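dumping this here so i dont lose it
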């Protein structure tokens, strides 16, 4: 075998191997709308107990403010893909797995309560913001806890993989508060830990704490306190590198917001009794949120 032919055969053998070694990020994923059109199915990520945004009632029915917005997007996807009978697959997600499941294509659109952070923008894409919350504390009315300095030397609860966990752990180090921090997997586990007395307070987004309070055995025994430690901009989450799908999501949300349709949706979940216990959050729309709905954007606060 001559030298030229040998080199040719060697290159033919090596090139496929090199292709296999290319990082996953360098490979072009199938656009979401093409994937949905081909499968006649869209995968929606939801939270099981994030009242009143995304949660389950009755016979595994997914409901909530986030889901109502998501339903508008699903309707738009049906029109764009010309799939009026599009199948919707609901996939439960947690704070820990929501981003990986979007990245690997298991979930096409995550419609829960994920905060848009600049650090996360390298991993996934965010829609326009649909809610703004602040991080505070849920505690028993008679606990003696009124603000974050009162937590020194005590056991405090938060959720794994959240902004609140990061803030709480940094606070513990920087202010030498000697807190014992417990990180729950989800709101169900967190509520159980709080009601059992394992922690004196639960740090999370104020509106989600209101949802957790509504599910306790005696909601009137619990109060939300503390100086807000951060503002959280919630957005729907999708894969990076798919501008067509992202534009469809944002166009749909902007239409719902600017038309005023969002006002009735908001009132339904935050100013009227909601399932399963018929508790009224009594959480009026803030001026900041009204301004956001008038001029939608996807800017992260952090």
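and the seq i came up w/
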């Amino acid at each position: 075998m001559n030298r030229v032919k040998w080199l040719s055969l060697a290159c033919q053998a090596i090139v496929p191997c090199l292709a296999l070694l290319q990082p996953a990020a360098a490979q072009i994923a199938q656009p979401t709308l093409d994937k949905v059109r081909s499968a006649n199915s869209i995968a929606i990520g939801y939270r099981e107990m994030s009242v009143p945004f995304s949660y389950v009632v009755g016979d595994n029915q997914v409901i909530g403010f986030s889901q109502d917005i998501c339903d508008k997007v699903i309707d738009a996807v049906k029109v764009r893909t010309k799939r009026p009978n599009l199948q919707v697959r609901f996939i439960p997600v947690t704070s820990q797995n929501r981003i990986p499941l979007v990245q690997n294509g298991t979930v096409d659109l995550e419609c829960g309560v994920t905060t848009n952070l600049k650090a996360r923008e390298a991993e996934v894409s965010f829609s326009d913001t649909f809610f703004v919350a602040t991080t505070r504390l849920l505690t028993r009315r008679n606990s003696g806890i009124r603000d974050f300095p009162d937590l020194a030397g005590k056991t405090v609860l938060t959720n794994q993989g959240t902004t609140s966990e990061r803030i709480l752990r940094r606070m513990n180090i920087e202010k030498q508060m000697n807190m014992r921090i417990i990180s729950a997997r989800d709101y169900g586990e967190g509520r159980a830990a709080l009601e059992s007395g394992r922690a004196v307070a639960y740090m999370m987004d104020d509106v989600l704490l209101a949802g957790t309070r509504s599910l306790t055995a005696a909601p009137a025994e619990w109060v939300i306190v503390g100086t807000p430690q951060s503002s959280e901009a919630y957005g729907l989450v999708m894969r990076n590198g798919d501008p067509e799908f992202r534009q469809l999501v944002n166009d749909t949300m902007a239409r719902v917001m600017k038309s005023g349709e969002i006002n009735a949706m908001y009132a339904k979940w935050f100013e009227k009794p909601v399932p399963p216990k018929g508790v009224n959050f009594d959480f009026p729309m803030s001026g900041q949120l009204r301004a956001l709905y008038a001029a939608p954007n996807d800017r992260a606060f952090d």
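DSSP finds ten helices and 15 strands in the chain.
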